[in-house]
């Protein structure tokens, strides 16, 4: 009974995909420990769902797919299991499987806002922006205050090249969810590619403050600072931190990201190099400019050569 009590208490937040508090994270950990004591044949659909959720959260994607499959075998109408499995499929690039699961989730529950948002993500990945926007329109009607709808709309505008409008949508999303590190990071990217490195720097710094430091936040800050020659030292420090944490960061991105995204990042990095190379030799900070030029040139050449292979 203790197992079901814990699952019953934590499950609503997992189904709604709410950010868990530290106390709820501990409860989830305890629930997983107790579920694992139950024989496989005796686990319920909710037990398998919880295991799938926790595996997906730490990117154990194939374990997560297996657990969600078992949840669905126990309950063919478990719409959240289809939706969560679709999210995992999307992460590993299996977009058609993701779309199939999302269609099933929406067949079961036509008002499933989170499934509309995720299906819009799949459509956007496939370049079907009109379909994506239609799904977001439905999601917005179902849940007008949902910041994810605004953020997804902003992401599509960004993919279409409408960067100013994307920033405005992110502004509205952040008004609804002021402590969401991802939103600041996404708005920072839109600002960066809209030629606003100072605004991007502020957003990336806020994302780091809210979500902690990792190789992505360090790299993003390096990008924003790199476009400001007077901040070459800070840019070099952030890029160094990013590549120290993940040496293959750039080459992996060039290999895995969409061609359009790779192209625009490559151009931004090249812009940094061009800007730094054009700074007068006697301008303060020459040492760090040269170090930054050397670091970025090396990483870009490596990433470009591996992609060509």
Notes on the protein architecture:
The protein has 309 residues and is mostly helical. Among the domains are: 1-76, Serine Threonine Protein Phosphatase 5, Tetratricopeptide repeat; 213-309, no CATH class. Helix content is 78%, strand content 0%. It has 17 helices and no strands. The chain has helices at 2-15, 22-35, 45-57, 61-74, 79-91, 95-108, 113-125, 129-142, 147-159, 163-176, 181-193, 197-211, 215-226, 232-245, 249-256, 259-277, 286-308. The longest helix has 23 residues, at 286-308. The model has no long low-confidence stretch (mean pLDDT 92).
Task: Provide a short characterization of the protein structure.
With 309 residues, this protein is an all-alpha fold. The chain has helices spanning 2-15, 22-35, 45-57, 61-74, 79-91, 95-108, 113-125, 129-142, 147-159, 163-176, 181-193, 197-211, 215-226, 232-245, 249-256, 259-277, 286-308. Among the domains are: 1-76, Serine Threonine Protein Phosphatase 5, Tetratricopeptide repeat (Alpha Horseshoe), CATH 1.25.40; 213-309, no CATH class.
């Amino acid at each position: 009974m203790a197992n079901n009590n814990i699952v019953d208490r934590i499950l609503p937040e997992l189904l709604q995909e709410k950010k868990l508090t530290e106390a709820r994270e501990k409860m989830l950990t305890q629930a997983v420990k107790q579920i694992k004591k139950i024989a496989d044949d005796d686990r319920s659909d909710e037990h398998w769902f919880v295991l799938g959720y926790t595996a997906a959260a730490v990117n154990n994607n194939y374990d997560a797919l297996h657990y969600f499959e078992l949840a669905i075998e126990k309950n063919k109408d478990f719409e959240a299991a289809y939706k969560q499995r679709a999210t995992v499929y999307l992460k590993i690039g299996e977009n058609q499987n993701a779309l199939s699961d999302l269609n099933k989730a929406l067949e079961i529950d036509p008002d499933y806002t989170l499934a509309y948002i995720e299906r819009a993500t799949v459509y956007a990945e496939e370049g079907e922006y009109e379909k994506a926007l239609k799904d977001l329109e439905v999601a917005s009607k179902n849940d007008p205050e949902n910041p994810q709808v605004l953020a997804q709309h902003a992401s599509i505008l960004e993919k279409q090249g409408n960067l100013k409008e994307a920033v405005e949508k992110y502004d509205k999303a952040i008004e609804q969810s002021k402590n969401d590190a991802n939103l600041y990071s996404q708005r920072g990217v839109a600002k960066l590619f809209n030629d606003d490195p100072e605004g991007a720097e502020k957003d990336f710094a806020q994302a780091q403050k809210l979500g902690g430091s990792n190789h992505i936040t360090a790299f993003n800050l390096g990008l924003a600072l790199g476009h400001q020659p007077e901040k070459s030292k800070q840019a070099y420090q952030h890029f160094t931190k990013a590549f120290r944490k993940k040496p293959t960061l750039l080459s992996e991105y060039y290999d895995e990201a969409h061609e359009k995204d790779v192209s625009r990042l490559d151009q931004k990095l090249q812009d940094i190099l061009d800007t730094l190379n054009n700074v007068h030799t006697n301008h303060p900070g020459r040492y760090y400019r040269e170090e930054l030029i050397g670091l970025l040139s090396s990483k870009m050449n490596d990433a470009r050569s591996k992609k060509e292979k």
